[in-house]
Design a protein that fits this description.
By secondary structure, the protein is an all-alpha fold. It is 47% helix and 0% strand. Helix 1 crosses helix 2 (31-38) and helix 2 (31-38) crosses helix 3. 14% of the residues are buried. The mean pLDDT is 88.
Length: 66
């Protein structure tokens, strides 16, 4: 389970959807994979939002980049 409760990041619905998608996902999805899945519920979300969220989560130590 991802540890994101105390990372000092505003948890917007889009960010929560990205985190939810990643939580427990063992397939090592690309940013494009995340975008394709999450944007079905958030059609106005941009790929930049996904990249920025992934970068922030990586910087905060919540996820690792492979």
């Amino acid at each position: 389970m991802l540890n994101y409760e105390n990372i000092g990041l505003k948890l917007t619905p889009q960010r929560l959807a990205i985190i939810s998608y990643l939580d427990g996902n063992l397939s090592h999805p690309s940013a494009s994979d995340v975008f394709k899945t999450v944007s079905t519920n958030f059609p106005t979300m941009s790929i930049a939002t996904v990249y920025n969220t992934l970068d922030t989560l990586r910087e905060k130590g919540v996820i690792k980049e492979l």
